[in-house]
Amino acid sequence: MSCNNIDYQHSRRDFLLQAGGGFGALAYAALSGQPLAAATTDNPVAKKIPNRFGRAKNVIWLFMEGGPSHLDLFDHKPLLNKLAGQTLPESFPRPVTAMGEVNSPILECKRQWKQCGESGLWVSDWLPHHHAIADELCVIHSCVSDGINHAGGVCQMNTGAVFGGRPSLGAWVSYGLGTPTESLPTFVVMKDSSAMVVNGARAWGSGFMPSGHQGVLFETGAEPVRNLNNPAGVTLTEQQGKLAFINSLNRQHYVGRESNSELEARIQSYELAARMQADAPDAVDVDNESEAIKKMYGMDEKETEIYGRQCLLARRLVERGVRFVQLYSGAGSKWDSHSNIESNHSRLCRGVDKPIAGLIADLRQRGMLEDTLVIWGGEFGRTPMSEKGTGRDHNPTGFTMWMAGGGVKAGQTIGATDDLGLYAVEDKLHVHDIHATVMGLLGMDHTKTIYMHKGRPERVDLNEGHYHDDILS
């Protein structure tokens, strides 16, 4: 091809797409991690995924930030009350605790317990609405983390590492699956107050991946997306004209800077914001739901209105194609209960119990539960030993999470902790295993969903996780 025939207006990406049948573009995409086009719905590793993996399409992660007490919610341990007031038996290895207390007496559990549903799942009286959804849950009693404090725990539960800098699980899902919608974000984050989650935006960041895969934070209240509606006195035609002009300037500026993924992500975010003005107002308008549905989520009660609204909004978002929605309860580590666990957990449980049960029931009645994976848990659990006499310390060595929907085998428990709920002793699932399992339930082989970073093949599990087959129905 002579130089006279070269069109200098085409970008490098255009050239790679056209040259050699597009194989140059495939190599570029593999090396850079950037999509071949501005938006894609294809899974870049689809042909490498074994058929045995699940086929969930979306995730709703109910994150109880601060560390909910598995011993007072799902992991029934009668020995706690028998040994209450005594120190940990000599047969138990002494744990390293976040606050450094040693030989603290065991704290009794004051809950009333009930075996619920046909599965006989143990649930305490702090979560009475969960009794009705027990048979939808797969409860994992043997979760393990390396994060002994909140910063490390939240970071690892989200990104796989106790130190910042890696992509969050939601970013991996965005990278692996793409999005079926161009008018809503792929990954949305919500929190239940103005307080910031520990580590801030790093908890839903994209790390070394292109910035376009990071989560988009929706605000609390009736208007989760600011400036979504047109300014007063500005017509739709005027607004579209202004946005088109701004977009043309952005694209002109982008020419010659294609390697800058942050710049591309910023331009794409502006374009997404413009598209959201057309479709997002309907998606976030939960007031259009029937009174019966809003009551199911607890929106008619003060204690449950905030989390109920967010659970309902999460359902509306995945209904419209959003891949990953993360809902933080207790933003700012409010589930942390070093003292006064009775008042702290009692209040927080009342705020989330009905909305979560309503979410599961609503997904089920709409036929969405099969395609939507719901995850519940925090960054770690709590110790059987007391702290300050009325609370429990952090416990990353054995705690509970649950999953529902998304192809998960319902009505079962996986793993176990010891008789006091301190250490996981059966079927341990490290955070890496949890991430690998979530990826698998979404149809991705975690060993083959690879992002090349500085010449190194990076994976969600840092090459340490294992997909847990028993979780699949």
Low-confidence stretches: 1-43
What Rg is obtained from the alpha carbons, in whole angstroms?
24 Å
Helix-strand topology string: HHEHEEEHHEEHHHHEHEEEEEEEEHEE
- Assembly classification: single chain
Overall SS class:
alpha/beta
* Shape summary: globular
- End-to-end separation in angstroms reads 57 Å
Average pLDDT metric: 86
Give a short account of the largest sheet.
9 strands, mixed
The total beta strand count reads 17
| Percent helix range | 25-40%
- DSSP strand (E) fraction? 15-25%
Number of helices: 11
Protein name: DUF1501 domain-containing protein
Pfam families: DUF1501 (PF07394)
Organism: Blastopirellula sediminis
InterPro entries: Alkaline_phosphatase_core_sf (IPR017850), DUF1501 (IPR010869), TAT_signal (IPR006311)
Question: Can you describe what's shown?
Answer:
- The protein has 473 residues and is of the alpha/beta class.
- It contains eleven helices and 17 strands.
- Strands 1, 4, 5, 6, 7, 8, 11, 12 and 15 form a nine-stranded mixed beta sheet that branches.
